[in-house]
Structures are given as C-alpha cells and as structure tokens.
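Project outcomes to date are best conveyed with an example. Our students and postdoctoral researchers have been running inverse folding experiments weekly, and each run begins with a structure described purely in tokens. The record below, which covers 193 residues, was selected by the lab manager from last quarter's runs and is presented without edits.
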C-alpha cells in the first residue's frame, strides 16, 4: 500500500488540548521541528537517527559534528537536546534528543527520558515553532520498554504543552502497528485522568 495511504492519523483530545498520533515516516512530515533520537556524540547512527541523517543530507551530520564535545565523545548529555537546521528535510529544524539506555528503570531512566522530551519542546519554543514531531525515543537500540516509554512521552508532552504553549501541535510518530497501539493506549489513558 502506498505509504501516504497507509498513514494512521488520530487526534486524541487530552485535557482540552490536542496531541496527535501519526503512523509513517517522520522524515516526510511538514512540521517546524522533528526530533531525532540521537546518541551522545551526535555522530549519526541507525534506526530513526540514520533515516533522519539520510533524508537531511550530509550537511546535517557535518553540522552536528561541528558542535564541540563537552567531554570525549559527548556533544549532548543524556536527557538533553541540541537544535540544528533541517537541511533537506521538510522540517526547518531538528532537535537531537539523547534518551537514556534502559538499565532496569532504577537508574533515573524515566526522568532522563522525560527530560529529553522537555528539552526538545523547549528548543522548539525557542524558535517559535508551532509544531513538533517525536519518534519513540530510546525504544530501539537503547532498549527502553515501549509501553513505559509511551507513557513518559504522553505525560511529558501534555504536561509541557499545557504549562507552556497550549497551541503547540505535538505529533507522536510511530512506524509500526505495535507502537501505534501503545501510543493510542497511553493517549487514551492520559485523556481519562
């Protein structure tokens, strides 16, 4: 099926606001900011990071590698984000968010994941963005359990939006049916609180 026809678009009204769930390729979205699930070195990688790097062109990697290291192989600490241009992407900016590696959940992972989402939203607000799209940060190679990550994503994004910019359009992007179901469930649970 054509990727455009295969998209699942769903809006869930959560406490008076709208957070969207979108199924498809995050690199094709016409939003102000897309979030990249980056590594601390901002040196490119696989998964969504690789897809974003490929779609943006070599200028994106060149831009991230120009960011000074704060210590060896670390340009952006876990729980933080750094903004670059979007280059060849439809999005004008990319927020490179570094989520935590899952290590049982007892090492501050939920707080660090929430911090990566908030940092991205703060950067988007700083460039007066009206829309931002997030992948499921840390759920790939970093091993964060998808259900727990979905709950952190929804709670953090909605709390930020309600406190800072009720009109910000936030899209949670899924590329597979399992992630769509988990995000839909997390959005529904949040809306019922």
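After processing, the design step wrote out the following sequence:
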């Amino acid at each position: 099926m054509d990727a455009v026809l295969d998209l699942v678009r769903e809006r869930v009204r959560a406490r008076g606001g709208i957070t969207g769930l979108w199924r498809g390729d995050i690199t094709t979205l016409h939003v102000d900011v897309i979030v990249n699930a980056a590594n601390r070195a901002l040196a490119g990688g696989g998964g969504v990071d690789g897809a974003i790097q490929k779609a943006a062109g070599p200028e994106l990697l060149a831009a991230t590698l120009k960011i000074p290291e704060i210590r060896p192989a670390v340009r952006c600490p876990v729980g933080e984000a750094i903004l670059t241009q979007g280059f060849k992407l439809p999005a004008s900016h990319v927020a490179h968010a570094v989520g935590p590696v899952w290590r049982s959940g007892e090492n501050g992972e939920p707080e660090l994941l929430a911090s990566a989402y908030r940092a991205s939203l703060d950067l988007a607000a700083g460039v007066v963005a009206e829309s931002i799209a997030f992948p499921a940060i840390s759920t790939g190679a970093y091993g964060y359990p998808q259900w727990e990550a979905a709950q952190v994503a929804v709670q953090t994004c909605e709390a930020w939006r309600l406190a800072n910019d009720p009109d910000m359009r936030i899209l949670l992007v899924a590329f597979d049916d399992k992630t769509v179901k988990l995000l839909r469930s997390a959005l529904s649970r949040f809306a019922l609180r």
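The beta strands are 9-14, 17-23, 33-37, 81-85, 93-97, 131-134, 169-174. The helical segments are 47-56, 58-65, 109-126, 146-164, 177-192. The training component of this project remains on track.
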